[in-house]
Amino acid sequence: MNNVALKIQALKVGYGARTVLEGINLSVARGEWFALLGPNGSGKTTLLRAIAGQLIPASGTVLIGGHSIQEVPEQAKRLLGFAHPPERLPALLSGRQCLEVYAAAHELAEIGMPVLALAERFRLTSALDCAVETYSLGMRQKLCALLALVNDPALIILDEAFNGLDPASALILKQELAIRVASERCAVVLATHALDIVLGHATRAALLLEGELIRAWSAPELSALRAGAPNALEVALADAAATAAA
Q1: Beta bridge partners of 4
Q2: CA–CA separation, 1 and 58 (whole Å)
Q3: Fold designation for 1-77+187-246
Q4: CA torsion sign, 231 to 233 to 234 to 239?
Q5: Is the dihedral of CA 150, 81, 217, 39 positive or negative?
Q6: Rounded CA gap, 43 and 52, in Å?
Q7: What is the mean pLDDT of residues 20-40?
Q8: Which of 71, 82, 161, 78 has its CA nearest to residue 122?
Q9: Cα(106)–Cα(123) distance, integer angstroms
């Protein structure tokens, strides 16, 4: 089994003539929770979409479990769990139908019991047969998390997945992801502004600024920040941004 869940080399991505990301190199192994930090417009969502194969890079490679998302997308996507943006969920389908579509796309005969059990813990079961258009933001976020886990993926990609979640549901999702990471079943890549999640759960983190990864923090460095002042990570992010601008 390939322990490297994600490997990105010399990635360049843009929209038309505008380059958004350039020179991105990143490797994330199973058993790691990688936090992607950066201000709005820094390119975090663009990077996640490139990893998921939704954007074709101008150059560079994205490997998921050793499979190129550009060259063999079917093999790569079998290992990928991508949390669909909540605003792009199909409004007229029910939550259960969305899960069934995802399961079928991964050649699964049915929605697995672990995902249905997590829906029960989310208190979403009673709404699974209702149309997505009736869902609140928090309910959509829960459904998106379930969709990302349907195929028990080796790589889970999440973009601000905790926005709109009530505290109890946020805790349940953190615990579920932490269990999967700790058992080395998968790697998690989370784009977030929530520094408490970074300090509480991430094993590594990096700052994306103006399309470049300008600073990374290893597990020991994050541990030191946890043990430091309450705002140590905020100060570290501001220092990294200031250094890059100098």
Answers
A1: 29
A2: 30
A3: Rossmann fold (3.40.50)
A4: positive
A5: negative
A6: 14
A7: 97
A8: 161
A9: 25
* Rounded Cα–Cα distance for residues 83 and 164 (Å): 14
Instruction: Report residue 46 as tokens.
Output: 């663009």
Note whether 222 and 203 are within 8 A (CB): yes
Pairing state between β 155-159 and 80-82: parallel
> Token digits for 124?
């979403």
Going from the C-alpha of 26 to that of each of 32, 47, 204, the distances in angstroms are 13, 11, 11
> What are the extents of the domains in the chain?
1-77+187-246
Q: How many CB atoms lie within 10 A of CB 105?
A: 12
pLDDT (tens digit per residue) in 215-243: 999 999 999 999 998 899 999 999 999 99
Angle at which helices 95-105 and 137-149 pack, to 10 degrees? 20
Contact 9, 70 (CB under 8 A): no
The pTM of the full predicted model, rounded to 2 decimals, is 0.95
pLDDT tens, 124-180?
999 999 999 999 999 999 999 999 999 999 999 999 999 999 999 999 999 999 999
Sort strands 4-15 and 59-64 into parallel, antiparallel or unpaired: antiparallel
SS3 string of the chain? Answer: CCCEEEEEEEEEEEECCEEEEEEEEEEEECCCEEEEECCCCCCHHHHHHHHCCCCCCCEEEEEECCEECCCCHHHHHHCEEECCCHHHCCCCCEHHHHHHHHHHHCCCCCCCHHHHHHHHHCCCHHHCCCEHHHCCHHHHHHHHHHHHHCCCCCEEEEECCCCCCCHHHHHHHHHHHHHHHHCCCCEEEEECCCHHHHHHHCCEEEEEECCEEEEEECHHHHHHHHHCCCCHHHHHHHHHHHHHHC
